[in-house]
Amino acid sequence: MYVEGSNVGYDHYTTAFFAHLGAGYANTGGENLINSISGVEGTFAAPNDFPFPDGDPDYGVDELRAGQGTSFLTCQGNRVRAVCYDADGYRAICSSIILGVLADGEFTNTKASLMARYLGYLTGSTEPNICVSNEEFDFGIQYVNYESTIPLGIQNLGFADLNISSIAISGAGFTMDSEPSYTLESGGEIVLDVVFNASEAGIYEGEITIASDDPDDDTIVIELSAECLLPPAIVFSADELSVQIEQNQIANRIVTINNAGNSDLSFAIRLEDADAGAVSRNIVNSSDFDGVMLSKNDYDYREGPPVICGFGGPDDFGYKWIDSNEPNGPDYEWFNISTIGQNSGLAGDDNSVSLTLPFTFEFYGQPKTSVRVATNGYLTFGSDGGVYLNDLIPGNNSPNDVIAPFWDDLHQQSGTNYYYHDVDNHRFIIQYNNWGFFSGGGSLTFQVQLYENGGIYFYYNSMTGTLNSATIGIENNNGTDGLQIAYNTGYVQNGLAVRLSPGPLWLSLDLESGTIPAGSSQDITFTFDSNGLDEGTYNAETIVYSNDPAIPETIIPVTMICGPVGIDDDLLPYQTRLNGNYPNPFNAATFISFDLAEKAQVTIEIFNVLGQKVITLVDEIKEAGTHKVKWEVDITSGMYFYRMKTSGYVSTGKMVLLK
Amino acid sequence: MNIVIKLYLMVMLLLIFAVSAGAQTINALIWDNDNASHYTDPDDYQSRGSEYGLQRALQANGVTYTTLTSLPQNLSAYDIVFVELGIYCVG
Asked: Which tens digits make up the pLDDT trace of A185-195?
């Protein structure tokens, strides 16, 4: 037997294992090696100074695959960690690579296939051993006359040459470019492209048959399948948008997405600022509370500033937020995943689990492929998932790179954490279900939804307990930028939704993704908001992703010219709509903005929280176009409602007066 | 795979005795000598001992195995011995 491994010698030489075998080790400098073993029945011996084939023995592994020669299993960076030695009829491996604790690998690198490679070596096998990456190929939904390719890996895990005498593919629509035969040496691999392309809609099936001299598996049959549809076709009502509005105005424009194809059209929209430099409003949003250190179960005496309106931002990057209490905010639509999602395994206290994202998610301009979910009600793209004491955002304290729907000292209690990839709606959902507080009491059921287009949504379904001691918001990877929605103050309520989006400050959408049946259409409302902006021209890009195989990505340029506007019929709003008021909250006066698609009798009335009418601001016939009306007040602080009515339209908004 | 496992944290030894090429049946011993160490399984996020993944991989290859927490003096019944030493010096 032969044993190598610095960690074996160094980390374990005083342990029961070495005592049992009577082994010792020698520290020969940079590496701590076993120098002798004389154990069970005198069968062990080990020289020292075994040369590591590829240097550093202490190396992180995140993949493992078949290699060749004595390095028959290798990891990334060509570092060999499974070192083998043949002597005196014995074989041994000492390795830090543990199949049990690595994730099941992809392609031909599953635990089972790698174990087959181990076993073949250990038993001194002299036979070939064929391994294929897929036992079947399901191409899923495909479209007529559009080609799709999936790689097929064939590997020899055995210790003699593998002779593949034939590879045949059958079935209409399926093709594969391969040689008539192959010879693969031990550990060798080939990758072939399996292609599907059909000219008619329908269900397709086929087979790949591989014949070889593997004595245990001389014929392998791989089933092929695909469902081919006539494709969807995306058509836009406009290929660009340009709006000219005055300062402190809100205007809406509609772009219609039509599906002129023959199957469902799935789409997702992302807004990107096309201007250099950040655009900022003249809105103060700050807090100056210092962080303190509290032990678990200490009374949290810290009190944050009140949340006075249902929107905020942007931060330096451009993220802004808005909640479902605002006229242009997201709708609260609870999509329960407790019966369809997977249990993440998140458990106990101050713990976390890492989840692989099903798509690349951009957060503060950085691509993220996995996320760590913490028991304490936050997600992080960093490594610190065990921070119980919530803090201000942004800040240097760990954790950074955070999405915090409800960061507090929480505990699993009797709850479960689920995750689910909603393919149709391009979103990844994480749900804390019946989660608890570390101190006990209360029950929390809430979600984070990460959209493929970078959008972030919080949904609060059922929240009981101490709800005014959490941090809610997002923060970048070094704590220098972020959006704090709430910190140690009352804000969260059942049925609340919050949307955070990285798009341009002045532009928002009422719908960011969806599915349109064949022959149908969907209106998307673009809201232009010039509140607090300087005069000038603002540019953005609307990027629309779809499953139309001909046009998977479309860019619609958007321009807003902010400044004095003359009367121009082309600039009239497309629909009658109450746009909201600004500023909000307000002190002495606020403006209420609305659009009229046509000349109409309009009333705008103000009510207090008791439903009593305070004043009628407008009661007259107005021309088509965008209008605003000023309300100057000399009444007590509080919440007020304004209602706009025309003959066919009624809408109500909410505003806060702070004196 | 995205899971990164620091190799120096965990050690497994794989031993085989009196190899006989072409043996039809393999009888393996898993010496679970890691003081019941657990880790988060990267495949399904459950807390498990490392012997779990080893057992599944052996099952997939039709290998008969026995799992023990102490090493028998006589190993002649086994073709292969897997030794799990666990994290640092726990074994």
From this structure: 988 899 999 99
Q: Considering Cα of A130, then A134, then A136, then A137, what sign does the dihedral take?
A: negative
Strand pairing of A90-95 and B10-16?
Answer: antiparallel
Sheet holding A148-156, edge to edge: A130-132, A148-156, A189-196, A174-176
Q: In this complex, which of A90, A93, A123 lies closest to B23 when CB atoms are compared?
A: A123
Instruction: State whether A317 and A415 are in the same domain.
Output: yes
Q: What are phi and psi of A99, to 5 degrees?
A: -55, -35
Residue A131: strand pairing partners? A155
Does the predicted model carry a pTM greater than 0.80?
no
Q: Which of A100, A122, A144 is the last residue of a domain?
A: A122
Residues A62-73 pLDDT 10s:
455 666 655 556
Q: How far is A588 from chain B (nearest CA, A)?
A: 56
On chain A, the residues whose CB falls within 8 A of the CB of B8 are 6-7, 11, 57-58, 96
The ipTM is 0.83
Say if A520 falls within a structural domain: no
Q: Which two tokens stand for residue A392?
A: 């201000």
Q: What is the CATH number of the domain that holds A608?
A: 2.60.40.1930
Burial of A282 per CB tally in 10 Å (0-12, 13-18, 19+): exposed
How many structural domains is chain A composed of? 4
Any domain includes A551: no
Mapping DSSP onto H, E and C, the string for A153-171 reads EEEECCCCCEEEEEEEEEC
- Alpha carbons A323 and A281: distance in angstroms, whole number: 19
User: In the predicted model, what is the mean pLDDT of chain A?
Assistant: 80
Nearest alpha carbon to residue B51 among B64, B60, B38, B70: B38
Asked if B24 reaches chain A (Cβ–Cβ under 8 Å), the answer is no
A366-374/A613-622 β-pairing = unpaired
B64 within 8 A of B78, measured Cβ to Cβ = no
pLDDT at residue A32 greater than cutoff 70: no
Q: Which of residues 25-84 of B touch A (CB under 8 A)?
A: 26, 33, 39-54, 56-58, 60-61, 63, 71, 73, 75, 79-80, 83-84
Structure tokens at A386: 């065990």
